[in-house]
């Protein structure tokens, strides 16, 4: 079997421990520690259910005993595909207590993706909801279990049927040997949108550090109330500071099933939510909804936005509409987290994606040959540090492409550093169209297209072309009037673009197809652009 986990070099691990980044406690024990300090405070609100830290701690213990009774042991993997719910939270921490490793899948994922995850992770159990947003997960899980002999248990969070239920697993509390703090705690999915999914092994110590340091940076305390609107299987709402960071300071986490404003706004008003995290696509919807929505959002102090590019204009409108501070977060499940700080000046918050969380995060910005670019120039972001992985889980030779020999993660992100030391994400290194040998950066053309008065948003994708290899297609959201290709060319030429950078075709969509977490799904756009009716 290929290597599951690539540890940090021993002397660095010691340094991270000496500096107090890595604490000698596994996440399950961390929670016990937080719960003993904040026992009577409310940890979790899930609909009508309110759990104090002590309640949740006890439920975690009962579930850990239940998982143990099934025969699950430290090092086993369990696929967790649950919507935001108390069951999700209790199950994950119960697995942490045993050293069993949850593999976090998004509720929106379906059998092709789940199959691929099972192939790599070989989970012993699959934790699923009965139904969520109209989809019955049980038939899918049964089919998947039939194809993957590693899967011994299907555990349903919901009404009893032929399967085990999460509630039915609970057993009286007992003590277990805790896993080591340097052991793998959980497997996250990489945000990468191509090929087979990559699994990201995060350790107890590094994950707890990212959560605690993020909570401190965001100024969280016991009175903080965090709304988990995005799916908790994603690193952002889970750890930045999210659920785990909020628990670490004795704050309250309120769970939303879906990230729409129709669910979120009443929750913010009812629970006096102080902080939440969104992707830009949702931030735009929340902004628009405030034109007529009357919910009292005055408690909201900080709105975090990350996961994809946030236009400065959108950031400005969002801040005005929600009446709170905005924070840009440029993060990756592989590790590195960059934040604008709550007290940063406006231009930093509105136009940059902030700077690294840890004093020991290392960032290099390099050209195609791996050489550092001149200050202010753009290049690929490479990073390593106390919470950035050194290799994907069981990825074999794929790791050689994603990590440098000296342990930097190659993010694939094209960034530049401002004079003030903040990073600006300009696109993806490989998000380019190779038009007869001329490389065109999609991000550059998109930026010009967005300046067109009729264009609300733009994405440029490659379409296979028999002559050029690839040609470019501009996919536009233009709700009022759809500019033709000639008009677009004239406009772009007016902005100084050369002929080969002008889109070869144009297509229109009413809204973006989104990935499971809510980023623009460029793969799907490229498929759409290939369809003949999309041609201009
Ligand atoms: C542009 N691109 C961004 C940003 C991420 C917090 C926030 C986000 C993620 C995340 C995360 C971006 N502007 N502000 O894990 O903890 C793109 C980059 C990056 C990739 C990582 C977190 N913030 N991105 O999005 O693992 O391309 O993590 O490399 O899903 O999203 O995706 P993912």
Label this structure with key terms.
GMP Synthetase, Chain A, domain 3; 536 residues; five-stranded parallel sheet; globular; single chain; alpha/beta; binds ligand J2J; Salicylate synthase
Question: Summarize this, please?
Answer:
This protein is of the alpha/beta class and 536 residues long. Helices cover 32% and strands 25% of the residues. The chain is globular.
Question: Can you walk me through this structure?
Answer:
With 536 residues, the chain is of the alpha/beta class. The chain has 18 helices and 27 strands. The radius of gyration is 23 Å and the shape is globular. It has a domain at 431-534: GMP Synthetase, Chain A, domain 3 (2-Layer Sandwich), CATH 3.30.300.30. Ligand J2J binds at residues 190-191, 235-236, 240, 306-309, 328-333, 337, 353, 411, 413, 425, 517. Residues 31-393 form the AMP-dependent synthetase/ligase domain.
| Strands, count | 27
CATH architecture name of the domain at 431-534: 2-Layer Sandwich
Ligand catalogue:
ligand J2J
Main beta sheet strand tally, sense and closure:
9 strands, mixed
CATH superfamily of the domain at 431-534: ANL, C-terminal domain
CATH class division of the domain at 431-534: Alpha Beta
What portion of the residues fall into strands of 2 or more residues?
15-25%
State the separation between the terminal residues, measured CA to CA. 50 Å
List low-confidence stretches.
none
Counting H and I runs of at least 4 residues, what is the number of helices? 18
Task: Name the structural class.
Answer: alpha/beta
Strand order of the largest sheet: 2-1-13-12-14-15-16-17-18
The best one-word shape is globular
Rg, Cα atoms, Å: 23 Å
CATH topology of the domain at 431-534: GMP Synthetase, Chain A, domain 3
Give the averaged pLDDT, no decimals: 94
Share of residues in helices: 25-40%
């Amino acid at each position: 079997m290929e290597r599951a986990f690539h540890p940090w070099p021993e002397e660095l691990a010691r340094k991270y421990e000496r500096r107090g980044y890595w604490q000698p406690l596994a996440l399950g024990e961390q929670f016990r520690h937080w719960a003993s300090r904040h026992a009577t405070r409310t940890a979790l609100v899930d609909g009508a259910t309110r759990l104090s830290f002590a309640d949740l701690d006890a439920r975690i213990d009962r579930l850990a005993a239940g998982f143990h009774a099934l025969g699950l042991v430290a090092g086993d993997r369990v696929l967790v595909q649950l919507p935001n719910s108390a069951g999700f939270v209790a199950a994950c921490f119960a697995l942490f207590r045993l050293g069993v490793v949850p593999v976090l899948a998004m509720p929106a994922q379906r059998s092709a993706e789940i199959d691929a995850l099972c192939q790599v992770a070989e989970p012993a159990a699959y934790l699923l909801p009965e139904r969520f947003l109209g989809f019955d997960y049980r038939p899918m899980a049964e089919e998947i279990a039939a194809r993957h002999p590693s899967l011994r248990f299907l555990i349903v969070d919901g009404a009893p049927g032929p399967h085990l239920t999460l509630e039915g697993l609970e057993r009286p509390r007992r003590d277990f040997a805790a896993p080591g703090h340097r052991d793998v705690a959980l497997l996250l999915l990489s945000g990468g949108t191509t090929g087979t999914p990559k699994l990201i092994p995060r350790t107890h110590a590094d994950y707890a550090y990212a959560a605690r340091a993020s909570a401190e940076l965001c100024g969280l305390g016991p009175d903080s109330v965090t709304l988990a609107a995005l799916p908790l299987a994603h690193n952002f709402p889970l750890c930045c500071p999210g659920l785990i960071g909020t628990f670490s300071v004795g704050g309250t986490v309120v769970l939303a099933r879906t990230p729409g404003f129709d669910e979120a706004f009443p929750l913010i008003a009812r629970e006096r939510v102080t902080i939440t995290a969104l992707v830009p696509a949702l931030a735009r919807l929340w902004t628009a909804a405030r034109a007529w929505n009357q919910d009292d959002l005055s408690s909201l102090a900080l709105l975090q936005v990350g996961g994809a590019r946030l236009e400065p204009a959108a950031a400005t409108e969002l801040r005005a509409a929600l009446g709170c501070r905005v924070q840009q977060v440029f993060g990756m499940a592989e590790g590195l987290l960059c934040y604008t700080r709550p007290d940063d000046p406006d231009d930093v918050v509105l136009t940059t994606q902030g700077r690294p969380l840890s004093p020991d995060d290392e960032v290099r910005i390099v050209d195609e040959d791996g050489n550092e670019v001149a200050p202010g120039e753009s290049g690929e972001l490479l990073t390593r540090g106390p919470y950035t992985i050194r290799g994907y889980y069981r990825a074999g030779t794929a790791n050689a492409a994603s990590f440098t020999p000296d342990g930097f993660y190659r993010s694939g992100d094209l960034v530049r550093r401002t004079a003030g030391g903040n990073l600006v994400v300009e696109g993806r290194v490989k998000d380019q169209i190779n038009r007869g040998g001329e490389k065109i950066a999609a991000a550059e053309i998109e930026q010009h297209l967005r300046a067109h008065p009729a264009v609300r948003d733009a994405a440029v994708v490659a379409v296979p072309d028999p002559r050029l290899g690839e040609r470019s297609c501009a996919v536009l959201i233009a709700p009022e009037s759809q500019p033709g290709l000639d008009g677009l060319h004239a406009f772009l030429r007016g902005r100084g673009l050369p002929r080969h950078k002008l889109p070869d075709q144009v297509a229109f969509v009413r809204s973006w197809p989104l990935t499971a977490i809510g980023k623009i799904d460029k793969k799907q756009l490229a498929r759409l652009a290939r369809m003949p009716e999309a041609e201009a």
